[in-house]
Amino acid sequence: MADNQATLTVDGKDYQLPITEGTLGPSVIEVAAFQKAGYWTYDPGFMATAPVESKITFIDGGKGELLHRGYPIDQLANNAEYLEVAYALIHGDLPNAEQKADFYEKIRQHTGVHDQLRKFFEGFRRDAHPMAIMVGVVGALSAFYHENLDVSNEEHREITAIRLIAKMPTLAAMSYKYSKGEPFMYPRNDFNYAENFLYMMFATPADVDYKTNDVITRAMDKIFTLHADHEQNASTSTVRLAGSTGANPYACIAAGIAALWGPSHGGANEAVLEMLDEIGSVENVPEFMEKVKSREVKLMGFGHRVYKNFDPRAQVMKETCDEVLDALGINDPKLELAMALEKIALEDPFFVERNLYPNVDFYSGIILKAIGIPTSMFTVIFALARTSGWISHWLEMHSAPFKIGRPRQLYTGETHRDFVKVEDRK
Ligand code: SDX
Q1: Which residues are known catalytic residues?
Q2: DSSP code of 115?
Q3: Is the pLDDT of residue 79 over 70?
Q4: Are 182 and 126 in contact (CB under 8 A)?
Q5: What catalytic reaction does the record list (predicted)?
Q6: For the chain, what is the domain count?
Q7: Which of 80, 129, 203, 252 could cross-link to 242 by cystine, CB 3.0-4.6 Å?
Q8: In testing the pocket of ligand 1, which one of 232, 305, 316 has its CB within 8 Å of the most ligand atoms?
Q9: How many other CB atoms are there within 10 angstroms of residue 417's CB atom?
Q10: Could you report the per-residue pLDDT of 138-168, keeping only the tens digit for each?
Q11: Could you tell me the pTM of the whole model?
């Protein structure tokens, strides 16, 4: 219900626009009255537009605060397992012991994929980018779960969420194995979620006694949590818009993967490592920074539409980076280079004036590289983790009546004109 009202005066007429308060963050002004006045609101890039109401994630960009169902991200990352966070995103609270055991068992039961799905991989070149494979193969899941999937049925929606969260690690690992020409590894359900993923990524059929490093497993799980959800970002908004047409949820998630791939979004983690490779050494940082300031290039892994202060995920990621490199005895010069970049950027007026701080993608690549994950798989890891966020927003949308998303536009094209025969055209 509207708490109070704003008045819009246009063409000498006043329109009362209801203002609705949330539990946290800015209130919203409902703009439907603009239609009556014969106007649209205009907000390229949705800088100040809330197309939905949500209870899942709250971000305070000024304070650098990120809450999932009210729980601060640093507390979740340092204390919860990713699947507990996924449960909270979907159901609203962290699971109690019984709910946790039940959810974990359901996930375990659905980590496998239909054997026919293997054939989809063979259509890709060996050097295909794994994100291209993931868009294709996750979209293909809609062919395996369509006829008897009724999105208006809550039980069907619940099992879809379980299937997607359970299968993404399997499909992600398959996209990696395919690129290496190694056999796919079947999921092992005696491993936990992160262990299972690392097993499917790095084990071969000969590794009968495969063991993971606890530090790496914990770091992998923490990275999943740090990428789980992030309010109405571009890929989540894509999933919601696709879902608003009633589309197959597997196809909606594939649309989210496609949107995430862009270097301005989830593709930035891969771009950070490419940038660090290009810079090469700390000596080259000043010259690179001049290219950034002249807008030849962007400082990848820096800046954020919402965070105008530090990204709390980047802080946890940096701590994890130190832990992993220390535990593995790795002295990665890229970390030193990244820290030099961060130091310079945090002191340089160009970045300070634009509120450019490291975001979630700045340090993640260094950890993933230390774990042995190739750069091309970084965004796949992001997509794997974000699936719990995407599907929780899809579930939230379907949990109440919703309208198809249908934005309008500011039209600046040709005014009305009649058809001209080709012989009369200039
Ligand atoms: C993610 O939305 C989410 O929540 C996304 C995400 C999630 O979890 O879902 O957090 C994940 O996508 C993180 C962001 C990863 N992307 C990058 O690291 C790529 C580099 N960052 C930029 O492309 C940029 O910062 C964006 C896209 C992230 C945000 O862009 P905005 O909000 O549209 O800001 P802008 O482009 O209008 O920039 C404002 C100013 C501009 O300078 P002026 O033209 O006004 O002088 O800041 C400059 C920009 O040129 N700027 C940068 C910069 N980012 C912005 N300059 C250099 N390097 C950068 N990285």
Answers
A1: 304, 361
A2: G
A3: yes
A4: no
A5: oxaloacetate + acetyl-CoA + H2O = citrate + CoA + H(+)
A6: 1
A7: 252
A8: 305
A9: 6
A10: 999 999 998 889 999 999 999 999 999 999 9
A11: 0.95
Residue of minimum CA distance from atom 23 in ligand 1: 264
170 and 111 in contact (C-beta within 8 Å)? yes
| Structural domain includes residue 384 | no
Residue 16 counted as domain residue: yes
- Name all residues whose Cβ lies below 6 A of ligand 1: 45, 230, 233, 264-266, 268, 292, 298-306, 354, 356, 359-361
Q: Tell whether the model's pLDDT for residue 2 goes beyond 70.
A: no
Range of the domain at 40: 5-50
| Confidence label for 110 from pLDDT (cuts 50, 70 and 90) | very high
Nearest C-alpha to atom 41 of ligand 1 is from which residue?
A: 354
Q: How far is Cα 210 from Cα 40, in angstroms, rounded to an integer?
A: 59
Read off the pLDDT band of 36 (50, 70, 90).
confident
Query: Does residue 190 sit within a domain?
Result: no
For residue 46, the domain's CATH number is 2.20.28.60
pLDDT of residue 356: 92
Residue 27 lies in a domain: yes
Nearest to 348, CA basis, from 279, 296, 302, 283: 302
- Closest C-alpha among 178, 192, 67 to residue 129: 178
Contact between 313 and 226 (Cβ < 8 Å): yes
CA dihedral 200, 203, 209, 215 (to 10 degrees): -80
Residue 381 has pLDDT above 70, yes or no: yes
